[in-house]
Amino acid sequence: MGAVLIDGKQIAANCRNATAEAAAKFNAEFGVTGHLAAVLVGDDPASQVYVRNKERACEKAGLRSTLHRLSESTSQTELLELVQTLNQDSSVHGILVQLPLPAHLNATEILDAITPLKDVDAFHPENVGLLLQGRPRFLPCTPAGVMKMLEVSGTETVGKRAVVVGRSDIVGKPMAALLLQRGADATVTVCHSRSQDIAEHCRSADLLVAAVGIPEFIKGDWIRPGSVVIDVGINRVEDRLVGDVEFAAAAERAAAITPVPGGVGPMTIAMLLENTLHAARLQLQ
Ligand code: NDP
């Protein structure tokens, strides 16, 4: 393997430690503990693991977390009522509704109901708008985690050709927005399922971010030699997790690459902790 490994586990641990220190200072100064309320509807096993990991990370960082577990048959009205209660609870600073929600629920309406000041996932249209205007209130967790990895690994983005594969509201679109914003200043191309010549776009990339959700979709020979490859994908194949990039072949050509697992995944939770503390600060003002 020629590429340097960008160690998300280590970078995330450093971020969590920094948040823990900041949370302790904040508590000492204002007597307030940052508090994340997580809402889990139904019993999807992967969602349960994600929520548990988020709770544990909060506690380790000296933040409070409360889990609201609702049954699979919860109605839209009941869930909206819980969100309103959490919006009004001044002891709660961040609200996270774990996705995906059961199919009978309208996720957009639920996410829109979270008050923007407590929207630590940065999904609310007001927060998305602020991000696009270059004055973010919260940074969306996964793309913010990627930006942090680029910063820590010393990856230059200014004037570079960045290709993002995937245009979801959670990863691809906000990732493109962050790379485009002043300061990051990349020249950004976004590919999706209707794009043509994706391999050629990838071959032009100084920085490639893969967020497709298809195991090893990005082939090793699509990687521009000397480029930086960030693999956001987490796909379960039989009993192991693989990314969206053909890792071994890509690592022969890239200058730096993130592994799966141990790459972007841990960063997402680390950024959620930062956002929770940031939300607590915002609510003191
Ligand atoms: P979505 O399914 O919401 O979006 C996938 C995107 O990939 C869509 O924009 C889709 O295009 C595009 N796509 C699908 N098939 C193709 C194709 N054949 N060619 C080109 N583009 C294609 O997924 P997410 O963005 O939520 O997640 C992407 C991956 O990242 C998943 O593996 C997920 O598990 C992982 N993930 C990891 C996180 C982490 O913390 N590391 C956090 C969130 C996600 P179109 O819009 O045209 O349909």
Description:
With 285 residues, the protein is of the alpha/beta class. The chain folds into 2 domains: 31-115, 3-Layer(aba) Sandwich (Rossmann fold); 141-266, NAD(P)-binding Rossmann-like Domain (Rossmann fold), CATH 3.40.50. The protein is built from 10 helices and 11 strands. It has a 6-stranded parallel sheet with strand order 1-11-8-7-5-6, with helices on both faces. A 3-stranded parallel sheet has the order 3-2-4, sandwiched between helices. Helix 2 (45-60) links the parallel strand 2 (35-41) and strand 3 (64-70). Bound molecules: NADPH dihydro-nicotinamide-adenine-dinucleotide phosphate. The site of NADPH dihydro-nicotinamide-adenine-dinucleotide phosphate has 25 residues, from helix 10.
Task: Give a quick rundown of the structure.
With 285 residues, the protein is an alpha/beta fold.
